[in-house]
Specification:
There is one protein chain. By secondary structure, the protein is α+β, with helices and mostly antiparallel strands. It folds into two domains: 37-201, no CATH class; 211-379, no CATH class. The protein has 13 helices and eleven strands.
């Protein structure tokens, strides 16, 4: 048994590893030049090279994969020679990377001319600047260099007197502008996908994990509410159809379940929007969650999405439950219970029900994946 469990775990880990490679490869082979898309069609090759270096896209592909998967902070710590910590900026959803000095003070640097400027984060949230030229070190070529953390959440190798520049997004200009104090090498800092930090969005500068989590919360809320409606209703209607095998009620429920299951998600959603949103005008035809509390402040926003998911997922569980109930009601022990004089109600609820629900309960647990997949289409 232990060998079987170990084999399954190893297979699962290998599968996840292969999937991660495929996902990473898809992003790598996507067409287009990201530097040109952001900097514009008139960017020079030097500007593109500088920009790609800042994003870490000039590094070998295996280094980029490791960074994406397990992060780069552990690698940067060895170069900087200090612990690195990610601190959330007060009052915002942005995070900043800081090195931790010997006295425990968070510190970052910037290069102004030939001077290395230290920025120390104070307990009250303010930043104090001071010249920090004593940190320069001489490399094997006799050049003064320093590995530190800059204000753009990167580990940077600065070279004294190099005059290098870099490009950054300037709010005042509304676009990317050239700045002095560029470095020789860059390592964008992140903890990696396995540690919950897939990086920052190039477009917005916000953490990707926070953006996904905020949207995932809405999806999970919608899925939970739909699950609460779908499963009890599907089980009840399936049992009702199974107990009335061959009758008009059974035929109506069976055909209805087949129709709702066979109808595509988007078609069901459109029909419900036309009927309840535009014709009857009972609920809004389109909803946007402006805040986390929006669904609770206006529950009507959830009516159409929940109704759509319910109709889509209802039929399959209903048909499985009906088939199981019909099969159980034909078994010998049910006939024996009826022949012994037990009431039909007692036979159904005490003997048939618990056996008929074994398969549907298993299907329901597997159905959660389908429910989450349907949410993607419904939300779109």
């Amino acid at each position: 048994m232990a060998r079987f469990i170990l084999r399954r775990l190893l297979t699962m880990l290998l599968t996840m590893f292969i999937v991660s490679i495929v996902i990473f490869a898809v992003t790598e082979i996507a067409p287009g030049n990201i530097a040109r898309n952001i900097l514009g069609p008139f960017a020079t090759p030097e500007q593109e090279a500088s920009f790609l270096a800042q994003l870490g896209l000039d590094q070998p592909i295996h280094i980029r994969y490791i960074t994406w998967l397990v992060g780069s902070d552990w690698r940067a710590e060895r170069l900087v020679g200090m612990p690195l910590r990610r601190i959330k900026r007060a009052g915002t959803e942005f995070y900043e990377w800081w090195a931790i000095d010997e006295d425990g003070t968070p510190i970052r640097w910037k290069l102004e001319g030939e001077d290395l400027i230290a920025l120390r984060l104070q307990p009250d949230g303010t930043v104090v600047e001071s010249i920090d030229n004593h940190r320069w070190q001489t490399d094997e070529n006799g050049v003064s260099v320093f590995w530190g953390v800059d204000t753009q959440n990167r580990a940077v190798l600065w070279e004294k007197g190099s005059g290098r520049t870099y490009w950054m997004r300037a709010k005042a200009a509304g676009w990317w502008v050239e700045q002095s104090g560029g470095g020789r090498n860059y390592i964008p800092l992140q903890k990696g996908l396995l540690r919950g930090d897939p990086g920052e969005s190039i477009k917005t500068g916000r953490p990707v994990a926070d953006a996904l989590l905020r949207r995932l919360q809405n999806s999970l809320l919608l899925a939970a509410i739909a699950f609460v409606f779908i499963m009890p209703l599907a089980l009840a209607l399936g049992l009702l159809a199974g107990l009335n095998e061959g009758k008009l009620l059974d035929r109506i429920l069976s055909v209805g379940g087949l129709v709702t299951t066979a109808t595509p998600n988007f078609a069901t959603g459109i029909f419900l929007i036309l009927i309840f949103g535009f014709w009857l005008k009972i609920v809004p035809g389109a909803t946007v969650f402006a805040s986390e509390r929006a669904p609770f402040q206006n529950p009507k926003m959830l009516v159409l999405p929940v109704m759509t998911l319910t109709l889509i997922e209802l039929g399959y569980v209903l048909r499985i439950t009906r088939a199981c109930m019909v099969e159980v009601m034909r078994t010998a022990y049910i006939r024996t219970a009826i022949l012994k004089g037990l009431s039909y109600r007692r036979v159904v609820f005490k003997h048939a029900l618990r056996n008929a629900l074994m398969a549907p309960i298993t299907v329901i647990m597997l159905h959660v994946n389908w429910l989450m997949g349907g949410i993607v289409v419904v939300e779109a």
